[in-house]
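Here is one chain, start to finish.
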Amino acid sequence: MLILALESSCDETSAAVLDMDTGRRAIRSNLVASQIAVHRLYGGVVPEIASRAHIEAITSLTRDALAEAGCTLFDIGAIGVTASPGLIGALLVGVNFAKSLAYANRIPLVPVNHIRAHVAAALLAHPDLEPPFLALVVSGGHTTLYAVDTYTDYRLLGGTRDDAAGEAFDKVGRVIGLPYPGGAAMDKLAALGDPTAVKLPSPALPGDTLDFSFSGLKTAALNYLNGEAQRGTPIAASPDALTAGRAADLAASYTDTIVRAIVKKTDLALKQTGRKTLVLAGGVAANSHLRAGLTALGAKRGVRLCMPPLSLCGDNAAMVGAQAYYEFLAGVRADTALNASACD
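Its structure:
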C-alpha cells in the first residue's frame, strides 16, 4: 500500500511516499524543505513566516515526492497528514492541502498525531519492532513517557509540567550566543566541557511521579550567567579560549543535568511498566549525550533500545506516513470537516 504523507507542524515542510504492508516498511521518498535559514534571523520560529513558507513549498514538494517515488496520485491508497499538535497556522496549511488533494482524487484521508508520528519513525528504522513498548518522546515541545500498547493505543505515563527539554536547550544556547537552533550547537559544545563544573537543579520531580519540570533548571542557568556577567566575567561561546572553555563547561553541566533526569525517570518507567523495549523519539533524540545515556541504561537493564537514525529524528513526513498506515488499519478516516489542533 502506498501512502502519501504530509508534515507542516512547525518550521519544516515535508512530503513523503511510503510503501507499507505486513512485514514491509519502506520509504520511497522523503523530502524536507527546511526554514532554519529564515528563522535564524529572528532567533526562533516566527509562526506567521512559517505558515507562509509552508504555503510556498507544499505543492511543489508533494509533486517532487511523488516523482521520486515513481508513482502518481492514482497509485496512492491513503493520504496521511499531521493534524495535531503544533503551530496552528502551520498545521492548517498541511491539513487544508491534504483535504483538497484527498477530496479531489477520492483518496482516503488519515489524520495523524505528531507525537505518535515521532514514535513511528523508530518503526521504519527497526522493521521487527512492534508493541508493546515504552516510548520516550523528547522534542522542543514535549518530554513525555508513554506506554504504547498497540500501534494506535498510547497511555500517558508522565511528562513535563512546563517547558520541554528541547526548548530548554535552545533557550540557554541562545543566551550564551550559540547559533540557531541552539540545541544542536549545545550538543557539540557540551562534548568539550566538564559536566561537573556547574551545579544545577534536576528537572526530574521527586518521588514516584514520572513528571519533569525544566523551568527551574532554565532559571538557574540564566541566573548563573547573569551572576557571572555582574562579576565582570561573562560567559559566552566565542573564539576566546577562556570564555569558550567556560561556555563549554556550562553546556556540559546543563546537558548532563538534563540527561541524568531523563534517564532517571525512564528507568523508573521501565520498572513500573515491566517493558523490555524502549523507543526514543523526537527532535532531541538526535542529542548524542541523551542517546549515550539511554544506551547505557538499556544495557544495564537488559532492555532493547530502538532509536530512529538522525535523519528521522526531526520533523519529516516519512514518520507521518508510517503512523498513518496503522491508523488506516485501525479504521481512522477524516473528511472535509477535519480541522487542525494546536494541542495533543
